[in-house]
Design brief:
By secondary structure, the chain is mostly helical. It is built from nine helices and two strands; from the N terminus they run ααααααααββα. The protein is 64% helix and 3% strand. The longest helix is centred in the middle third of the chain and has 21 residues.
């Protein structure tokens, strides 16, 4: 099947499974399929080919009702789909998190960029550029904390180790 066919079949299967899934474990994984499809089909995101192939393989598995354990087998029929999705979601967690952040950035930018009758798309490169600018804007703050290779030392207060939240966020960005 072509990629659009796999995505459409996976979404259709998810709709069918939502009505039959009883386990919260299965339900949570099934609900994430829409995020995978959105990331896959988003022309402005430009998902790298390796990740694109992984998403398509996972979606093809979900879309196949006659997979390792056929979906009509009571109790176990959906567990293999949920496990496959869990493996895929763990593998692509950083990509999914980045896509969610990009999608929010795009919505925020649309309000700022678009004019009546004119849509100016926001690309992955635009989003990455904004992230770079944000990091460069933090450079003076990083310098004031010391060199970027120094660790933020915990402080004790009332016997509890605390780390300055701002310094911790800056270090996480480095």
């Amino acid at each position: 099947r072509p990629p659009q066919g796999i995505a459409a079949a996976a979404l259709a299967e998810v709709e069918r499974l939502r009505s039959t899934a009883r386990s919260p474990f299965v339900q949570r994984r099934i609900d994430r399929v829409a995020s995978l499809v959105a990331m896959l089909e988003d022309a402005e995101w430009q998902l790298p080919e390796l990740e694109r192939g992984r998403v398509l393989d996972g979606l093809a598995y979900v879309a196949d009702v006659e997979d390792l354990i056929p979906d009509n087998v009571p109790v176990l029929g959906l567990v293999d789909d949920a496990i496959m999705l869990e493996l895929l979601l763990r593998e692509l967690q950083h990509e999914l998190d980045a896509y969610d952040e990009f999608d929010q950035y795009r919505r925020d930018e649309a309000v700022r960029r678009d004019k009546p009758g004119v849509h100016r798309p926001v690309s992955r490169e635009d989003w990455l550029g904004s992230r770079r600018e944000a990091l460069h804007a933090l450079s003076p703050l990083v310098e004031s904390l010391g060199t970027s290779d120094q660790e933020v030392q915990p402080r004790k207060m009332a016997g509890v180790d605390l780390v300055d939240p701002l310094a911790q966020r800056v270090q996480a960005l480095l």
